[in-house]
Amino acid sequence: MAQAVEEWYKQMPIITRSYLTAAVVTTIGCSLEIISPYHLYLNPKLVVKQYQFWRLITNFLYFRKMDLDFMFHMFFLARYCKLLEENSFRGRTADFFYMLLFGASVLTGIVLVGGMIPYLSASFAKIIFLSNSLTFMMVYVWSKQNPFIHMSFLGLFTFTAAYLPWVLLGFSVLVGASAWVDLLGMIAGHAYYFLEDVYPRMTGRRPLKTPSFIKAMFADESVVVARPANVRFAPPADELHRD
């Protein structure tokens, strides 16, 4: 059993493995009181006035108490982060990292701006950890890229992947969890999906092109696809639009 878990862990792609490890270590550290959540949560005043910039990262690593909800989010993190990195972003580690960076930036920006809006500031002030929202963003992006996959929710009913975020949102409401967390993830996910997939098809421009300095951080492995002999193929879409 232990060997199987070890093999499963080693076979994870680098971003998924790193994020999952950081999340588990951070949450366990807080549960054992080795780390204090008060040093991790998102606090704009401490970030700006006391230069505690690490809070912009650590608030995405803590998943609250190690209970059923924690296991639930670890499952979704391991599953959908892995599916995205191995399939949609296969051979494009830098692009996948940039997607997470974009999502984290959007979520942080929403909370900061929302905290300045009258009548909404109190609700946004309660959102001090965005780890669940970032996980939900990955679920949303995956569902948009794989809309026709058939799924089952707890064996009760079946649906296509396009409705997965809404099913999970409804489940969160039923169990009494805050809908804000999931909604923020859906907003960030839709922003990425629109700018990366929809807008380029409409205009031919790609506003979320990964910066070169991020590409330099990762050595993307080339993906080799076998082609039948004596059959001509049109060049990939990426090559047609490559600068």
Characterise this structure:
With 243 residues, this protein is mainly alpha-helical. It has one domain: Rhomboid-like fold, CATH 1.20.1540. The protein is 59% helix and 3% strand. It has helices at residues 2-10, 14-31, 44-49, 55-58, 68-88, 93-114, 121-125, 131-145, 164-174, 179-203, 212-215, 237-240; strands at 150-153, 157-160. A hairpin with a 3-residue loop joins strand 1 (150-153) and strand 2. Helix 6 (93-114) packs across helix 8 (131-145), helix 8 crosses helix 10 (179-203) and helix 9 packs antiparallel against helix 10. One of its GO terms (biological process) is endoplasmic reticulum unfolded protein response. It is found in: Endoplasmic reticulum membrane. This is Derlin.
| Helix percentage | 55-70%
Mean pLDDT: 84
Can you tell me the CATH architecture?
A: Up-down Bundle
**Number of structurally distinct domains:** 1
The tally of helices reads: 12
Order of helices and strands: HHHHHHHHEEHHHH
Beta fraction of the residues?
under 5%
Cα distance spanning the termini: 49 Å
> Total number of β-strand segments?
2
Gross morphology is: globular
The CATH first-level class comes to Mainly Alpha
Q: What is the gyration radius calculated from CA atoms?
A: 19 Å
Uncertain regions spanning at least 5 consecutive residues: 222-237, 239-243
Q: Major sheet: order of its strands?
A: 1-2
Family: Belongs to the derlin family.
Organism: Gossypium hirsutum (Upland cotton)
Function: May be involved in the degradation process of specific misfolded endoplasmic reticulum (ER) luminal proteins.
Keywords: Endoplasmic reticulum, Membrane, Transmembrane, Transmembrane helix
